[in-house]
Specification:
It is a single chain. The protein is of the alpha+beta class and about 425 residues long. The protein is about 30% helix and about 25% strand. The strands form 5 sheets. Strands 1, 4, 5, 6, 8, 9, 10, 11 and 12 form a 9-stranded mixed β-sheet that branches. A 6-stranded antiparallel β-sheet has the order 15-17-16-19-14-18, sandwiched between helices. Helix 4 (about 65-80) runs parallel beside helix 6 and helix 7 packs antiparallel against helix 8 (about 190-200).
């Protein structure tokens, strides 16, 4: 089996992409999705968030929700809004956010390579979220939410993608926030072969976002393999929908922290406690850290710049040396008493896309007592953690720009042929 392979993608019919493309299913609440899809009968939210077409209060994990997703997909196919390519293809996908641009490949990635950790993970998954994706894939017999992957340095692939994305695009959508999504279908047999061979030569791919989707694909493949007496390994269920970008083009933003209280201390006592492990300097301006080991702290009306003691940064531990680990292990846990940031309600997380003003707002409103601004985790750090078969702390990475749902989906055929 190849690490990746072309597939017959399900895509918007010509000129319909803008009507269909939608934010990823997991970045919107049900209420937000209802508003976004209002008056848009072909929005992909009717497939990815189908509870919006059922009465308010419907359990989003109920059987009728998954059935509604299948019904909505069937209608889009029957009405010709979504069409399937006649032959296996790859797809070049470019994301543009302001001055930032990244060009990657939409491909079917190997489940067996995921299972053996050639496609590498860095997060734990939650069983309930895996179950949701399994039921969604089973109901649709399709993977509609792509897994965001990164490939290590491969100039040959970069050049192939640059060449493939040079002509007139097959889809060109500017979504909310001014994010531009552009797609080119790659049909040329020689280019398909070159891309497959180039990826096969790679030692690993890295999951950036989509751990629950990839885990669900693995579970689906295992179940269908067991149920298929003629299993050959070539069936479409052995692959999952992915968009793979060069790691050096991917943009990780800061993932900031806000705290509900100071664990019984006033501001002066809190600053005194943290000065044991950090240098603390008041700042007249908001603090956006400019290097690893540096943090911003906002207390009501006042920013501070923190720098952790150098001797507390371990040299050879890819997890413990992360800024998110340093802050957790040397401040949030020992000083604020928050030992389980996954479950403790006293801590919340704010994606860097919202800016430092959002941190000030949360504190000034009285909702939160303190906020920490972070230096963004690097792709190299993420890859080092994955290579060590370790797990990142929760809320370590915030990737922007986000992929769109609906531009390409991967159908899971029942036959042993390519899908």
């Amino acid at each position: 089996m190849s690490l990746i392979r072309p597939f017959t993608g399900l895509r918007p019919a010509p000129s319909r992409a803008a009507e269909i493309a939608a934010p990823p299913y997991d970045v919107l609440s049900t209420a937000e999705a209802r508003v976004r899809a209002a008056g848009k009968p072909w929005s992909f939210l009717h497939i990815s968030k189908p509870e919006i077409d059922l009465p308010v209060g419907t359990d989003p994990y109920s059987a009728e929700v998954y059935a509604k997703a299948a019904e909505n997909l069937g209608k889009m196919l029957a009405d010709g809004v979504l069409v399937r390519d006649a032959a296996p293809c790859y797809y070049a996908y470019r994301l543009i956010m302001g001055s930032h641009s990244q060009t990657g490949l939409v491909a079917a990635a190997s489940v067996p390579d995921y299972d053996t950790n050639r496609i590498r993970k860095h997060e734990f998954t939650r069983p309930d979220k895996e179950d949701d994706r399994v039921r969604q894939i089973d109901a649709l017999n399709a993977q509609t939410g792509p897994v965001l992957l990164a490939y290590p340095s491969a100039p040959q692939v970069d050049k192939l993608l640059e060449r493939a994305s040079g002509g007139t695009p097959d889809a060109d959508v500017t979504a909310d926030g001014g994010i531009r999504h552009t797609l080119w279908v790659i049909r040329d047999a020689a280019t398909l072969g070159q891309l497959t061979a180039a990826f096969d030569a790679m030692h690993a791919l890295y999951i950036a976002d989509g751990h629950h989707r990839s885990a669900a694909a693995s579970r689906i493949a295992a179940a269908r393999r067991t149920a298929n007496p003629k299993h050959s390994g070539n069936e479409s269920y052995n692959y999952f929908l992915s968009v793979i970008f060069p790691h050096h083009q991917m943009k990780i933003m800061d993932y900031n922290r806000v705290m509900a209280d100071l664990n019984g201390m006033d501001a002066a006592q809190f600053l005194q406690r943290i000065s044991e492990n950090f240098s603390v300097r008041a700042s007249a301006a908001p603090v956006k850290p400019s290097q690893p080991g540096e943090f911003g702290l906002y207390l009501p009306g006042q920013w501070h710049r923190l720098q952790i003691r150098a001797d507390l940064i371990p040299a050879n531990d890819p997890v413990a040396r992360l800024d998110v680990s340093l802050l957790q292990n040397h401040l949030i846990s020992p000083v604020l008493g928050i030992t389980d940031p996954r479950r403790d309600k006293r801590i919340d997380f704010v994606g860097g896309i919202r800016g430092l003003a959002e941190l000030e707002k949360r504190v000034n409103s009285g909702e939160m007592a303190a906020a920490f601004s972070m230096f963004a985790t690097s792709m190299e750090d993420l890859m080092a953690v994955a290579d060590a078969n370790e797990v990142m702390p929760p809320k370590s990475t915030w990737f922007e720009p986000k992929l769109a749902d609906g531009l390409v989906s991967h159908m899971l055929d029942l036959a042993s042929s390519e899908s």
